[in-house]
Specification:
Elements: E1 4-5, H1 9-22, E2 28-32, H2 44-53, H3 55-61, E3 64-67, E4 73-77, H4 82-95, E5 116-120, H5 125-145, E6 166-167, H6 170-180, E7 189-197, E8 203-212, H7 214-221, E9 225-226, H8 231-250, E10 260-264, H9 273-281, E11 287-293, H10 294-299, H11 301-313, E12 317-323, H12 325-330, E13 340-344, H13 355-368, E14 373-376, H14 381-389, E15 394-395, H15 398-411, H16 420-428, H17 433-436, E16 449-450, H18 453-463
Parallel strand pairs: 1-3, 6-9, 8-10, 10-11, 11-12, 12-13, 13-14, 14-15
Antiparallel strand pairs: 2-4, 2-5, 3-4, 7-8, 7-15, 8-16
Helix pairs in contact: 1-5, 6-8, 8-9, 15-16
């Protein structure tokens, strides 16, 4: 089946999801949320270019590409090549690199990333089907409101007015903040470990990052607007979100478990009374890493330096987040003197065709100090191998989550009741029904270090 577009796409996609999930082995789907781009970036010609970028998956891997009525793309198949799709998605992000929604993601294969969502049809098919069904209902409702029950041309690339959320504006922000006052964020909170790989190739959890899934939060709180569409308006909202998250974590038992907890905060939030209360609630031996976005650092360098020094004096650390190979070349991160610098991995750097870029990136990592670098968005083994070859020891991303999930299941007596996707999802949850569904909740946090199976076996034999 070739790519489907326009009015029929949603109906065909729902049928295909249902057929595929019933087959042995299920399948995978990738949902690219192009409708969340700013209107100026959602030009018909650019949407068509993006659709063509996935064309090779149809002929080479038997995938189907569905172009929905709101300009979203869904790639569906039984055996989608994750590495190849990651590379294409990265190129799409580059095409829209100045749109806030493309850099708001955290590289986690669920709706935490507002730009792309990954679905395992064995476990997640209902969530994807519900999402597509809501879009189809919205489209039909829009047609009824327009007084037309007739079909929309499949060659019309503009979405119906009510088919998708609109970019946030000051008036909408006021409504969102008012609604947020009584909103429970607990079920939308997530955590993701960063692991340090030792010289002996043993991975230890360096810290656990706690954050709120913006994708989940937007759908629950403000489905009619794109919260990240305007960086400065979103920053206003994120300050309120920081306060609420700190308030929840102060009384959240799970936040007491990691040896070191990491929080992504605005600089102003480190001077908030809620932050002081949270710090006071930490365990005696518990450390903290405060992650601040690089753009916020340069907006208030004096504030950054004051926060960095105060955190260090209290025994904690500061991390500059949101760096890329490009920004490393433009900025002298050493002068900012962070404890960590989080750099987002680019899948193209592992390609032989971009060896010059890879070498330049390696030189920048060496200049910053590999011991300071946290390589994030490590979605494949290639990213970790590249990092280790260049002296990096701390990694974060989907590949790390999958390995940790595999080791967690291997050590869990109740693992036969779960899939790897379920285990990884439950481990990432901070509270709520997802985590409560685990048949062995203590097992979700039992693994704090791990090694390759062969190395573990050798270690056990050595003890005998």
């Amino acid at each position: 089946m070739r790519a489907r577009e326009g009015i029929q796409a949603e109906r065909l996609l729902l049928d295909a999801i249902d057929r595929l999930r019933r087959k042995a082995g299920g399948g995978r789907a990738v949902h690219l949320h192009l409708s969340r781009l700013l209107p100026v970036n959602r030009l018909p010609v650019r949407i068509r270019v993006v659709a063509r970028m996935f064309k090779s998956l149809e002929t080479g891997h038997g995938a189907n590409v569905y172009r929905l009525s709101n300009d979203d793309l869904v790639i569906l198949g039984r055996a989608l090549p994750v590495n190849e799709i990651d590379t294409i998605v990265h190129r799409v992000r580059s095409l829209f690199e100045h749109d806030p929604v493309t850099y708001a993601g955290r590289g986690w294969n669920d709706p935490n990333d507002p730009f792309v969502s990954w679905f395992d049809l064995m476990t997640d098919w209902r969530a994807l089907s519900d999402e597509i069904a809501r879009l189809e209902e919205a489209r039909l409702a829009a047609l009824q409101r327009q007084g037309s029950g007739g079909p929309v041309s499949p060659f019309s690339w503009s979405a119906p007015k009510d088919a998708g959320p609109e970019p946030i504006d000051p008036r909408a922000l006021d409504r969102v903040l008012t609604a947020f006052e009584g909103f429970d964020i607990t079920a939308h909170m997530r955590r993701q470990p960063a692991v340090r790989i030792t010289e002996a190739r043993v991975a230890e959890i360096a810290f656990e990052e706690f954050f709120v899934s913006i994708g989940h939060l937007q759908r629950g709180l403000a489905p009619d607007v794109v919260l990240t569409a305007d960086r400065w308006l979103f920053q206003d909202f994120s300050r309120a979100l920081d306060r609420r998250m700190l308030q929840v974590l102060t009384t959240q038992p799970l936040a007491r478990r990691p040896g070191t907890i990491s929080l992504n905060l605005n600089l102003e939030s480190t001077r908030d009374p809620f932050f002081e209360r949270f710090v006071a609630s930490l365990g005696r031996k518990q450390g903290m890493v405060v992650e601040v976005q690089v753009i916020d650092v340069f907006a208030d360098i004096a504030g950054y330096e004051a926060a960095r020094d105060a955190l260090r004096e209290a025994g904690h650390k500061v991390l500059i987040d949101g760096l890329s190979p490009v920004t490393l070349r433009l900025l002298d991160v050493r002068r900012l003197d962070p404890d960590y610098a989080k750099v987002l991995w680019n899948a193209d750097l592992a390609s032989e065709q971009t060896a010059d870029k890879s070498a330049a990136f390696a030189a920048e990592v060496k200049a910053v100090g590999p011991e300071r670098v946290v390589l994030a968005r490590c979605d494949t083994e290639a990213a970790v191998l590249w990092g280790l070859e260049n002296g990096i020891r701390v990694f974060q991303g989907r590949f790390i989550d999958a390995v940790l999930g595999t080791v967690t299941m291997d050590a869990c007596k109740a693992s036969a009741q779960c899939s790897l996707s379920q285990c990884a999802g439950r481990r990432s949850a901070v509270a709520g029904p997802g985590r409560a569904a685990c048949p062995n909740p203590p097992g979700l946090d039992a693994v704090q270090s791990f090694a390759a199976p062969g190395r573990r076996k050798q270690k056990q034999e050595g003890r005998r």
